[in-house]
Design brief:
The protein has 2 helices and 104 strands. By secondary structure, the protein is mainly beta. The chain has a 22-stranded mixed sheet, with no helix packed on it. It has a 16-stranded mixed sheet with strand order 44-47-50-53-56-59-62-65-66-68-71-74-77-80-83-86, with no helix packed on it.
């Protein structure tokens, strides 16, 4: 039995050796295109163990390999090209395949590996949709390849384990370099993974992988560990100049990160615990990573990460050119003081961390935020310089009860301070200036206090509140930028000093705005009020008001000179509104009158009309970007007798209809009119009687356009051809300026008429007021004399706060009942003017304290007769006329 066993073993061994020799003897070398024109034909005719050598050339084909073969180029990858023509260039379905020495391009996947124990080496894999993809494939070796310029990732591993990826150049792919999903125990080493459009390496839901001795540079992210990727080792890598993070740990635990060299890069951690981070350097200095520690002092580091720490002091460190200078995650009672934290991606990043202090640091020129607080409360930010950061100086997000004080927050490339969904924070005594967008921005943030700050020269708003309520803004100096309320209610804005700017309101109600000044004059803010007169203001804001008169104000160098929001039946008259961002803005406001204003040199709009049935009459609208601009769906407004000159756009109407525009002068505007998707009436709706060059006519009247090239055949002053306004037109364009068509009419005089009983009468001094309901233009004052007497006016004086005119009697000459003023008297409708008249002899007297005439009222304050008797119901009968 023992002898038989020996013979049996010997026989089996001999058979095995003979089979091996037979296999070697039967392996073939096949040449393409000598033996077969196509690589696929060679594969189809090969047997396991054969070698296919491909001579130089370009092969347009998609090759599927289902046998254990070696397929390699004869002379290397430079001149042996496989173009997959949109399909997978190589698909490997058998184990133990070797692909070597090709340029693989033009495929959906360059090499699609669906098997195990394959070797991919010395290939150039470029300009495919995907470079190499492993699907449920294990124990493969990918080495010494150039994998670049693919539209997605260079190498992807899906549910693939124990693979080796080494000594490859994986660069400039539009996706990432290497992506692992649910793939474990893989080794990635000695690769150059650079300049990929997204991540260098992504380890996603993958464990126990080793990443070592790689150069990982200039990708969007260097290495990302996501979604519970645990127990991986990242060591001895050079990680430099990736745009976002060098290494990002997100929801990944118990990893080892050691002996890596970060240059202009670093580490970022979120929701990750139990990681060992040791012996790494950032720009030649130690990366300090502490987890679960307390009572430590750090004074010299390249980057600092604190996870679940308490009472850590970070002082006197220069933390520059890394991902995050200092990161706190779930850490409390830490102090960061006297550090230079500049030129990082983010300066200080505080997550879920409370009661920390950030003081006396320089936090400048970071690529994103200077300081970010996220779900972090009761922190103090004090006495820091926070300048020239590319996003925000400070970003407070879902964080409450923090204090920001005595900082200089300037020249940041977006916002100085942004609060998002954050409440009960205090912002005080800061300098907040020259930020590219807003100085302070609130988004859905309530009950915050902003006080005693200097907020200046931010390009958008000094303070912007969006959907933010019950905040207090007080005692701030706000210059060259203002405050904007946008859907924000019940805020208090009190005792702020605005210089060269002011307040803007949109759909915001119940706000208390009081005791603020604009350029040294009151900021008048009225809400839900009516029947008031405003005649001295630096800015006027009306919200839900009715029948408010704004007159005789000089408003300049503010945000919006006069703003009406949901306000109706108001009068804006005889104001000077110049050099603001917006001159007059009507938003959702109807039946208002804007008349006889000077509206000049406003940056954007002279008048912005958002509403219906408003009248814009007899204004001088000059040198604004838009003279008059209509918001969408602003209809049935009347624009007449305005001088609209030297604006970029004289009038601009989009998506608004049935407005009447006539008897305006459009002079020297870059574009006189711009109309889009609108149908309006550009002439009077009734015929008007007018005088042109000494002759009377009756016709519809349009506007004067200084670039009208038509002609006037019949001499009536109306052009024979329409003036084109985009899809609209003025059918009755004026040949000359509208004022050349009219002479003074009775509507331009103020006449008390003769009283029924002019007696008693005696000469004296009348003091009173005049308020007209029409524009009055007068050069003379006529006195009605009692019959048979020489009753006349010896002296008359008419004035208001900004203007005056006087007239003196010249004796009993031919026209002795009229006296002439030293200048033309123009009385604007609904304005109150003071008048003093000294009469001689016996003028006719209206014995009433207030006299209503066709064109307005005259009221008696006091009449003192020649004997010194005083009356309150004596009004001389006069007429103001030209």
């Amino acid at each position: 039995m023992r002898g038989n066993t020996k013979h049996l073993v010997f026989s089996v061994c001999v058979a095995f050796v003979l089979c091996a020799f037979a296999s070697v003897a039967s392996a073939r070398t096949i040449y393409v295109p000598d033996d077969y024109e196509k690589i696929q034909w060679a594969v189809d005719n090969a047997s396991d163990g054969d070698t296919i050598i491909v001579r130089d050339g370009i092969y347009y084909e998609s090759i599927t390999v289902s046998k254990q073969l070696t397929i390699k180029s004869e002379n290397g990858s430079d001149n042996c090209i496989v173009n997959g023509t949109g399909s997978d260039a190589f698909t490997l379905k058998a184990d133990g395949i070797r692909i070597e020495g090709f340029t693989i391009t033009g495929g959906w996947i360059g090499i699609n590996i669906r098997s195990n124990n394959n070797n991919i080496s010395n290939n150039i894999i470029s300009n495919n949709e995907h470079g190499i993809e492993l699907w449920h494939s294990n124990n493969n070796s990918i080495s010494n390849n150039i994998i670049n310029s693919n539209n997605r990732d260079g190498i992807e591993l899906w549910n693939s384990n124990n693979n080796i990826i080494s000594n490859n150049n994986i660069c400039s792919n539009d996706g990432g370099g290497i992506y692992l999903f649910n793939s474990n125990n893989n080794s990635i080493s000695e690769n150059n993974i650079s300049s990929n459009n997204y991540q260098g390496i992504v380890i996603d839901f993958s464990n126990n992988n080793s990443v070592s001795n790689n150069i990982i540079s200039n990708n969007e992210y260097g290495i990302e560990l996501w979604n519970y990727s645990n127990n991986n080792s990242i060591s001895n890598n050079l990680i430099s100049s990736n745009n976002d993070y060098g290494i990002d740990l997100s929801n990944s635990n118990n990893n080892i990160i050691s002996n890596n060299k970060f240059i202009n890069d670093g580490l970022f951690v979120e929701y990750s615990y139990g990681n060992i981070v040791e012996d790494n350097t950032v720009n030649g200095k130690l990366l300090v990573y502490l987890e679960g520690e307390s009572d430590k002092f750090i004074h010299n580091a390249g980057q600092i990460i604190l996870i679940r720490c308490s009472n850590i002091t970070v002082m006197n460190s220069e933390l520059t050119n890394t991902d995050v200078g200092i990161e706190l995650w779930q850490s409390v009672n830490c102090l960061m003081s006297n550090n230079n934290i500049s030129s990082n991606n983010d300066g200080i990043y505080i997550w879920h961390s409370n009661n920390n202090s950030i003081s006396n640091n320089i936090i400048n020129s970071n690529n994103r935020d200077g300081i970010l607080l996220y779900f972090s409360d009761n922190n103090s930010i004090l006495n820091n310089s926070i300048k020239s950061n590319s996003w925000r100086g400070i970003f407070i997000h879902y964080s409450n009860n923090n204090s920001i004080s005595n900082n200089n927050i300037s020249s940041n490339n977006r916002v100085g301070i942004r609060l998002g969904h954050s409440n009960n924070n205090s912002i005080s005594e800061n300098i907040i200036g020259s930020n590219k967008y807003d100085g302070i921005e609130f988004d859905h943030s309530n009950n915050n206090i902003i006080s005693n700050n200097i907020i200046s020269s931010n390009n958008w708003c000094g303070i912007a509140l969006d959907y933010s309520n019950e905040n207090s803004i007080s005692n701030n100096n706000i210059s060259n930028n203002g405050i904007e309320l946008w859907f924000s209610n019940e805020n208090t804005i009190r005792e702020n000093e605005f210089v060269n700017d002011g307040l803007s309101v949109y759909r915001s109600y119940g706000n208390i705005v009081e005791d603020n000044t604009v350029n040294g004059k009151p900021l008048i803010y009225l809400e839900d009020e009516s029947d008031k007169i405003i005649d001295n203001a630096g800015q006027v804001i009306l919200v839900k008001c009715k029948n408010i008169t704004i007159r005789n104000a000089e408003i300049k160098n503010t945000g919006v000179g006069i703003e009406l929001f949901e306000s109706d039946n108001c009068l804006i008259s005889n104001n000077s509104i110049t050099s603001n961002i917006y001159g007059i803005r009507l938003e959702q406001s109807n039946n208002n009158i804007v008349s006889n204003n000077i509206i000049r040199s406003n940056k954007w709009y002279g008048i912005l009309i958002g509403g219906n049935n408003n009248s814009i009459i007899e204004n001088d609208i000059e040198s604004n970007k838009y003279g008059i601009n209509f918001l969408r769906n602003s209809n049935n407004n009347s624009i007449s007798e305005n001088i609209i000159r030297s604006n970029k756009y004289g009038i601009r109407i989009w998506f608004s209809n049935e407005n009447i525009i006539y008897l305006n002068n459009f002079i020297n505007n870059t574009y006189n009119a711009d109309s889009y998707n609108s149908k309006n009436i550009w002439n009077s709706t009734e015929k008007i009687t007018y005088t042109y060059r000494g002759s009377k006519f009756k016709n519809y009247m349009g506007n004067y356009w200084d670039n009208y090239t038509g002609y006037d055949a019949n001499g009536d002053g109306i052009g024979e051809t329409p003036y084109s306004i985009d899809s609209d037109k003025d059918n009755y364009p004026l040949i000359e300026r509208f004022e050349h068509y009219f002479v003074p009419t009775p509507s331009q005089t103020f006449d008390t008429g003769r009283p029924e009983n002019p007696y008693p009468s005696i000469s004296g001094k009348f003091v009173g007021t005049i308020k007209t309901n029409k524009k009055i233009i007068a050069k003379k004052l006529y006195t009605y004399a009692c019959e048979g007497t020489g009753g006349h006016t010896e002296y008359a004086f008419i004035w208001n706060k900004t203007w005056c005119a006087y007239a003196e009697w010249d004796g009993y000459k031919e026209d002795w009942m009229n006296i002439s003023f030293n200048k033309t008297v123009v009385l604007m409708p609904y304005e109150t003017y003071n008048i003093t008249i000294i009469t001689g002899s016996y003028p006719q007297i209206h014995h009433t304290s207030a006299l209503k005439t066709e064109n307005g009222w005259i009221n008696c304050t006091e009449f003192t007769d020649a004997n010194g008797n005083k009356y309150e119901d004596w009004i001389p009968a006069i007429k103001l006329w030209s």
